[in-house]
Fold each of these.
Amino acid sequence: MSNPLLQLRPLGQSLWYDNIDRAQIKSGQLHRLLEEDGVVGVTANPTTFEKAIRAGHAYDEQMHQLISEGKSAKDICDLLVTTDIRTVAEMLYPVYESTGGQDGFVSLEVSPELAYDTPRTLEEARRYWNMIARPNLMIKIPGTPQGIAALQQALTESINVNVTLIFSLENYHRVAEAYVSALEVRLQRGQDIKHLASVASFFVSRLDVLVDSLLEDKIRSTRDSVEQHKIASLQGKAAIANARLVYKEFREVFSTAHFASLARAGGKMQRPLWASTSTKNPAYRDVLYAEELIGPNTVDTMPLETIEHFRDHGQVHLSIEHDLVEASNILTSLEQVGISYEKVTQQLQEEGIQKFAASFSAMYQGAQDKQRAMGTV
């Protein structure tokens, strides 16, 4: 296997593609990613859809039809998005069947504007689940306290959930607990748990972006060269350390005797999904995060650019559990230099929700702009 992407699967990592774009579906590019690069799942978020709908003319034909039916911009966006999701779900269904429901999923996000509203998040999750009506759909729900309550209820209703925008260890632990509790509830009711699936999307590179900027501030604020060197040595380290400790927590949660009883009844692990694995800092290796987080029972959802870089020069080895003591020491050292892990991860979750909510609004605005361009508004 000369393609490094194809070497991930034998090591237990599933490659998912972080984008949905109708132009890529029509051109056959998505099909090639499935066939040639070993992609076994697809994730979407408001930002990728907003860009896709604004760009080019791939959606024009359906938009003309929906406009002629008198649909609002919001309804048009809903129908454009769910059409793509359903198409991709059908493309991935053979993977879903051949992997016994382990992979072959496509994810669709409820509006992040509802991230702090449990009832409305649940309402949207149910609406999308019933509208798309595919067993290999996952509904993306943010890992806020309100979102965790919603995702636990959605799982008990047999709705597959991709829990998104997780940044901290504590947040991850609460998400994993909610998933296990949902399995328990269904089993106690005598309901099937074999076909229920969930992943916990842990965001990676954004942590380094924020922490590195804070470290730069710390370096500028001192003239002590020893202290400057100590602080600089932490740059580019936080994100990988954080994810490795999450994987350690994952191993602990899903290796207990308690979970083993759920597994015997058909319950699947809630795998960690590494999101935001593109490298934001050009000073770092362009496949840094993808290379350093490879391990069994994980998913990496990569954007196209990262897939292309990894295909070209990715180095594949079991890396996820490398030097866990050092990973813990890095987070401790960050606290020692005055960077609060709790504050940073909370800020990132809040900013992530704000950015995705803004993309939802931009997507609706994009639909309105196209309506105007078509002379119908």
Note: The mean pLDDT is 94.
Amino acid sequence: MILELLAGASVGAGILLIVLALRRPVPGVAATLSRLDRQRRPRRSLTASAAGVELDGRLDRVRTTLGERLEAEAGARGWQLMRTREDLEVMNRSMSTHLGTKALLALGAFVWLPVALKLSGLVGGLGVPVVLALAAAVFAFFLPDLALHGEAEKRRRDFRHVTGAFLDLVAMNLAGGRGLPEALMAASSFGDHWAMVRMRQALSNARIMGWTPWEGIARLGRDLGVEELRDLASALALAGDEGARIRMSLMARAESMRRKEMVDVEGAAGESSQSMLMAQLLMCVAFLVFLAYPAVSQLG
């Protein structure tokens, strides 16, 4: 009876997914405006570190086509996926490639696991492999999101570290007599680190579009999900061109960011020390059990 229920539930879920995939919803105003805004953004070429190892050409085309279809469906239904978009923006990857990878991994896990279990002889019935295959497909579908978020958080920490140095450079340029827009652009011209390059691109785009530099910084912070950039843009917008006051404010903000980074590093070091201490305690307990086992076994 359980197998029949599982089979019926699987068939029903499959039919529901097919109907949802084929149904063309009427997009709302917010979804339409979001799609048009994404289309207006220039496409960036992926760097070698962001692109990774190239797959086979045919598989890559299938992944891209499937990802574009999934992205269009998500946009038509008004699914913003803001956290994923922010992480992809940090990693300089496209949404279509990410969604295509998720779909292919889920399909591969769903097909591979039942075959592997059948060939290994671990299970004999059909219901258990189907349930395990569905669980594996769900896990494989969300696995790229977890990996992406971890990598994006590391790059955000790197970006915050560079932002502190950027603020010091801006303060030095202001002390040299430059105005705030010129100081921001000059500070972003130092070095070819990816964070400096993104900052320089944001300031250049703001100048081309007729925005203020701090508005360009705020948009970059919103795209990357970096709160410090949005706070910096708000401070710059309030200060304007008040030279000495804004210079002292930037130096204080850079010092605050460095202290926060130092606290984060000390916290991570403390967690590592606690993990090592727990591992040592477990080794001591295991050694004591190893020593006491012969004597305890003789008592029985």
Note: The first helix runs from residue 2 to 22.
Amino acid sequence: MSDQARVLESPCRDVTAQEIAHYHEHGWVKLSKFIKPDVIALLLQIAKRRMGEDGDSNDSYGLDQPYFNAEAAEGLGNQEVRALIEGIGRNATALLARKGIRARYFSDFFAPKLPCSKQTRNAGNGATAFHQDYITFAVDRTGGMTFWIPLEPYGAQAGTMSFITGSHKMGVMGSYHTYGDGDARDAFPELLDLPMTDPIEYELGDITVHTHLTIHGAGQNQTDKPRWAYLVLAQPEDACWNGAPPEAFDTTGMTPNQRLDDERFPIIG
């Protein structure tokens, strides 16, 4: 079997029963040695080709926030990356754990957090305020999740995420746009009663997965290079657009309460 065929056959492993249980109890899970190193290397190569070595040479994606500088990855159009996305979809279905409901692709993008010590062309060199993803996606039901894939080994100095454990059980907690100068912990001080993880330490191939209800945040990138990350977002296959203006996708030609269509949002689980 060729090296390429081997990568396409199994770019990532399967989640374990213990990892699924951790995800449901805590709202996030770290998956150690989840993705093959050669797949990570391919993703980093694509990211740098699209965004430059500095992670800052792409055009602005139009959302001026300090969390990261984003670039659509369009991985479904790349045979090798699509194999990873489909492997992620299989695991997203397992993590979702709904009877008869599979995972649907929602988006994939590169998200380098730029060094805080440098003046950057694009936004994305600040801290990530503690927030919840759910409200920005304009879907009508929960169950969505983000596979957060670092493309190099990183720790706290690079601005890796911390999760507020169990926060996914507190329901929808608003948009980060409504928090003013604070974050979710200021708007909902009861979050301070929940445990928060230290910034996650990632070795090559490690990833984290968090629900779109889980409160999370990160410090600044204090290194002198980008903190490269690749994100794949999944939704339940029965998710519908709720009619609100979304930040994450174009609703042209769609009607409120319409299920996400198979062409743009294929089932990957």
Note: DSSP finds five helices and nine strands in the chain.
Amino acid sequence: MKLTTNRNIFKYTENSRTEREDEIAVEYPLTVVLNGDEFATLVCSPSDLEDLVIGFLASEGVIRFPDEIKTISLDEKGGFAYVEITHQKPAGAEFYSKRFIGSCCGKSRQSFYFYNDVKTAKTVLTRAQITVAQCFRLMRLLQQHSSEFKNTGGVHNAALCDPHSILIARTDIGRHNTLDKIYGHWLRNRIPLHDKLIVFSGRISSEVLLKTAKIGVGIILSKSAPTDLALQLADQLGITVVGFIRGDQCNVYTHPERITETIAPD
């Protein structure tokens, strides 16, 4: 399915009006039917849908391993993903929407979680490091990667990288969907994560930070800003957050020991 569509528009400047064809990002609703029951409708870009569904179910705590999925089939025209899993999904709406208040890592500050986040988010203990120059380079590579972003400006991008290159890149209208697509691909392929990081185009919200923790990556780079709650969670979950990577400048917000000025020895 196409990620973009074309539409005739009027483009104005201060002194002129022209009619032209513009490229627009496609917004696609995908309803996940889990063991015969409608579970959720994801509004997404129509690409890498199987990765998206698997990553979403893992992020929600419905599955932990891909072999818990018995079957998965996509009706792309109708907008449905039919999934059969080996067990019953946790009963009760509270599993997916109940707030859980609790101290994390023995600290007195109280953190805000969904109940399923408590079950699936994990502290990241990686010793991976990356240089400041590598941060700049990876962000440039991400920005160059997506033709959909260049043509529409209406999508987000995320990539799983090592310090030198992009390994997996995903595009979506929803920034959180890009991470679920990466999570789903990782679950199916089990790429070692000890030296990996995520490069991201959007704002680092608490939801984005928690998805990073669920994947198990210890560094996230973004061209945009983090939120206060995201940084509280990053402090507690052991994740290095680098934001406002623009040109040759960036801000390191948490766990700065992973960001170095020179390449670390092998």
Note: The two ends are 43 Å apart (CA to CA).
